[in-house]
Structure formats: structure tokens, C-alpha cells
Amino acid sequence: MRFLMVLLLIFVVPSFGFSMHIMEGFLPPAHATFWYILSIPFFVYGLFAIRRILKENPKQKMLLAFVAAFAFVLSAMKIPSVTGSCSHPTGVGLGAIIFGPTTMTVLGAIVLLFQALLLAHGGITTLGANVFSMAIVGPLVSYFVYKLFMKTGKRTLAVFLAAFLGDLFTYVTTSFQLALAFPDKSYGMWYSFAKFLGIFAVTQIPLAIIEGFLTVVVLDMILKYNEELALGGEK
């Protein structure tokens, strides 16, 4: 019972400090507003993309819900890293490969909103910054890496690298956002950026590898039940 309670504390209790989701009120108001404004066009385009997907095939609702649930569960699995920070998988690569990047912007924004409201993971004022790193940059990297490596004809490699690099670039973006908001007083923003990268790297790189393998397995299972599924469906 004590072991289960420790696990519960690790994964459920909100963590403070620098996490992959930037916590509520942590960014200066100007920075929080900037990331909101930058995220809006991707979100709006994603709404149109989802509308087109459902218009062409209404049966895709279940699969959209599944990839959103996949991202919610994986990105809620916080694991403590060094210096009191935490890391987690993102889960957005799977949806980006199946439906395209901006579809995952909308689904990722919904996931981040619910996590902020229900789990105190992230925040409302920092939602724009978290959406930009996890629901825009991550899916875009996953989508284009998948497209690029599919030219080799090796789908397993393409899926693994798409999920792996999508996860890594999410944490690189979060590090940049934090460094931009809190540059080192002596050495400037890029020094601060290197420090944040170092904090996350210890735990995030192994997590990205695990996410890559998990995405390969889950996508293979989906394709076994739906052999006619066209991947990367965003136009």
C-alpha cells in the first residue's frame, strides 16, 4: 500500500519548478500573451482541418478521440527529474502521423486545458506557451519527420523518429520559452537556454525513446484493425 501511495504522489501531485508544462502564473504577462497570439492561427487552421476530416469520414470521430486520450494519458505521466523538475512523454506524435499537425494542435490544446483545470498540470495563463511547445512544434516536427523518412520505405523507423523527435523538440521549445522569459543575469538568454536543456535532458531523452517505441506499437495495432487508414491525412 505504501508503494502505491508513493507512485500516486509521483504521478498525480502537482510539481513545482520547471516542468514540461509551464505552471500557472510562471511566465511574465507579456510573454504569456505573446505565446497565446502565436498559437491562435494554428488552432484556427486545425479546427478547419478537423471539420474537413469529419466531413469526409464521420467514422473518424472515435480515432480522433483515441489519439486525444493517448496524448492526455502520456502527457499526464509526470516523472521527477533533477533539480526538482519533472518530465513526461507528449503523445502528440501518434495523432500528427495519422491526422496531420494542426489537427493535433486542437486536440493538444483541449488536453492541456483539461490537465490545467483538473490536474493543476500547466496553467491557464501559460496555456498559450504550452500549446505552442507541445501541440504545435511537437506535431509539426513529428509530421515532417514522418513524411521525410517514409521516403526510405521503412515505416517503423519513420514512426519511431517522428515520435522521438517530436517529443524532444517539445522540450527544446519549452527550454527556449523559459530562457526567453528568464535570461541569466550575467551570461544572457542562450546560457539560460543551455541550462534548461541540461535540466530536462537527463529524463526527457529516455522518455522520448520510450515514446518512440510505444507509438510504433500503438500505430501497428491501429493499422491491423483499419488497414485502409490513410496516414498524414491533413491537406
UniProtKB/TrEMBL annotation:
The reply on keyword Ion transport is yes
Q: Which GO terms describe its cellular component?
A: ATP-binding cassette (ABC) transporter complex
Topology in the lipid bilayer is annotated as:
Multi-pass membrane protein
KW Transport (keyword) present: yes
Which UniProt keywords are listed?
A: Cell membrane, Cobalamin biosynthesis, Cobalt, Cobalt transport, Ion transport, Membrane, Transmembrane, Transmembrane helix, Transport
Q: Which GO terms describe its biological process?
A: cobalamin biosynthetic process
Q: Where are the transmembrane segments?
A: 33-50, 62-80, 92-120, 127-146, 158-182, 194-219
A GO molecular function held by the record: cobalt ion transmembrane transporter activity
Q: Subcellular localization, per the record?
A: Cell inner membrane; Cell membrane
Return the InterPro entries for the record. Answer: CbiM, CbiM/NikMN
Q: What is its main location?
A: membrane
The pathway that the record names for this protein is: Cofactor biosynthesis; adenosylcobalamin biosynthesis
Under Pfam families, the record lists: CbiM (PF01891)
Family membership noted in the UniProt record: Belongs to the CbiM family.
Quaternary assembly: Forms an energy-coupling factor (ECF) transporter complex composed of an ATP-binding protein (A component, CbiO), a transmembrane protein (T component, CbiQ) and 2 possible substrate-capture proteins (S components, CbiM and CbiN) of unknown stoichimetry.
Biological role stated in the UniProt entry: Part of the energy-coupling factor (ECF) transporter complex CbiMNOQ involved in cobalt import.
User: What's this protein's name?
Assistant: Cobalt transport protein CbiM
Gene name in the database record: cbiM
